Please model this.
Amino acid sequence: MPWDRNQMAARAAKELRDGYYVNLGIGIPTLVANCVPPGMTVTLQSENGMLGIGPFPYDEEVDPDLINAGKQTVSELPQTSFFDSATSFAMIRGGHIDLAVLGGMEVSEKGDLANWMVPGKMIKGMGGAMDLVAGVKKIIVVMEHVSKGGGAKFIPECTLPLTGRNVVDMIITDFAVFQRPDHDSPFKLIELAPDVTKEEVREKTTANYVE
Amino acid sequence: MAQKIYPDAKAALDGLLFDGMTIAAGGFGLCGIPERLIDALVASGVKDLTVASNNCGIDNVALGKLLRTRQISKMISSYVGENKEFERQFLAGEVEVEFTPQGTLAERMRAGGAGIPGFYTKTGVGTQVAEGKELKEFDGETYVLERAIRADVSIIKGWKADETGNLMFRKTARNFNQPAATCGKVCIAEVEEIVPVGSLDPDCIHLPSIFVNRLIDGSPYEKQIEFRTVREREAA
Model:
């Protein structure tokens, strides 16, 4: 049975390490915050200018000046700090963030990521995604294995405008996990969701990878 | 002493506006937006604006108001979602967008304010963002040249300022306000409270007064929230 959204987030959380500074994208990646193992210190960075994101606030504590990059109200922690957008992206671009978990529309077998635009349809913009993939030490993409139309999303070459070229280190889908040790190596299938077979993954994937 | 305090946003914009001008605006989503100054820009009727701002508000809120009145011809932004009117105008070719990665946009503003005409960044290399721009290798990695932004006027929102313009922001409402403030030839700040000189700790000033040319007290503010998310209180 394929993983659901929370299980995919929990799988991504296994990549967290004590002391990590982490940026989580919008959607499934945000759920990773709920899966930090007890006793582990992980500091979440929000690119709108906050280090140390707390949980959603209680109703009476909601503060319009305190939001995350998804524009949701959040709370602060005793160790929280605030800063401006240029400083925030100095952290990101400057390689100070250990891990980013992002959503994806397509990932290519060479590690290219497309997640910001569907020409003629979705014109929202890239936000901070291009900076994150350019500067963060490790990039995990969490996405459904196939599109709503049933097409493969882990493919030989991206068809959508790229967010970054050769930037993805790990792909977690509802069916499987792929990883590569460096940006010159091919992705390797390292894990299957319960009762999912290698053959099934092969069938739903057009990218080349090793098993 | 030179007087920086103006009675209201209209007065603070007086003599600065012209059609076709470039404006840098602070704010992230609806957080920390210079709403009094945006309202005054709408009322002024100035048009053909190029606006550098991370977002373009939402429908008829914040910069979305200037969009509704067709006063904006070009946005320099990283994210313009959650705005139906923007989408409509963009798809109809009525408004132009220079999509700029968020960190590149912040740095373009910071550089503009710091006298740096351009800088090389890894962000966007190999994507359409880098198309037509100079590429250069440093230590075996490819970087793209991005140009600084210099605005005719920057409009920002702060929390508290003293009478000279020394300014503090509050929580995540700082965001683009700091870099935007520095890249304008003239910076107008609206704040929630103007306090006497000497009442702010000099060690806690986020934006030194030299970057603030004109100042207004825009209170009272009814700050809007784009996505109100809360948790339940655990039963005692």
User: Anything to note?
Assistant: The radius of gyration of chain A is 17 Å. Chain A touches chain B through 52 residues (CB under 8 Å). The first strand of chain A starts at residue 21 and ends at 24. The longest helix of chain A spans residues 5-13.
